[in-house]
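G., before I forget:
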Amino acid sequence: MLSTAKIIEKNSVPSQTFLVHGMPDVGLVGVIAASHLITEYKMVEMAYMDSEFLPPVAVLHEGLPYAPIRVFGNGSLLITISEMAIPADSIQLFMRTLLDWGQSKNPRLTISISGMPIQNRQDIEKPKVFGVASNAALLKMLEDKGIEILHEGYLVGPQALILRYCAEKNLPAIALLAQSFYNYPDPEAAAAALNEFVNVTGKKIDVTALLEKGEEIRLKARDIMKRTQQEMTKMKKGQEYDLPLYV
Amino acid sequence: MENKKKKQSIYDMIREYLDEAEKLKEGIPTIERPSWDLRACTLEPLSSIFVTPKEVIITADLPYVEPQSVKVEPINSDRLEITAAMKRKVKFKEMGIVHQEGEFASFSCQTRIPMPVDMQRMKTNFKRGVLEVRIPRKRSYKIPVE
């Protein structure tokens, strides 16, 4: 019997890489972006999370069972992705476990990719991407790269915890947050976030295929979006709309 | 005991009542429905409803849809039906499902509107694959401010 949660490595995991987190959240921006990176870079499964707090779920791919929260990698990049909505009650434990494991790999930079919900998303042609960071030097790096900083406000969900834990442990971390639909899968927002990922990391990634498959992704992602929305409600995700207390 | 009763305000009573209702709700076994209807060949779109002081706004995500096929029809005073034909039929297999056969040609859903609205003044807009329906709220009374 597991006592909490742990990451089980299946392959030798490289250290000193970029560590990207693509967790289910608004518009499924992180999951769509991470999934595109995994496909384009032909990354392989390196590790997975096991926990008694995970629902009794196996994700089937070509007939074989996999854990819903996995880590993919290649020589210079590690990506964590969840193929199911993360239960709100377990999110603190899961993010802490991923971060503690990530810390042991001494990443160059932890990057969370996610969405920032806006009400008039239909009217926006190109979603803007905002940045936040775990320290002042990284904020300056983002500004130097032309990424607008989210100066005040609330973050709720996986990226909020990742940033907080990284700041607490003095680990370099940023979050790239694209303007997105709240509860509709948003491949365009994922593509916008990936363009800034390229800007920050210098890696090459073509988002043309992602944009071309936009409608197909929106169709296939309906069920995970629906379940993610239920968990976001439990996390009080709507707080991201709140005006910050700034006096 | 009497003291305890005296201290209980109307708010405490309402809270207790709501807690009880929540517990009862949790106890009712429900079977989750899939987001599709094989017999009708329809998919249920993701949708949401917002209530503002002046209107009720319903949105629905409708990928693969022909804009001119989108229909929004009031069924009665508090229920709306949204239907939309897809550009082409989508098979289960294309969505990665091989243990079932079937195909879907349209989206369909019904939405309950939680307060009185003026259906005659409903406005619709379809942009970026998302339908937006705006319906003005009905005001049945006004409270004068002294």
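Strands of chain B lie at 36-37, 42-43, 47-51, 55-61, 71-76, 79-91, 103-112, 123-127, 130-136. The domain at 36-136 of chain B is CATH 2.60.40.790 (Immunoglobulin-like).

More on Monday.
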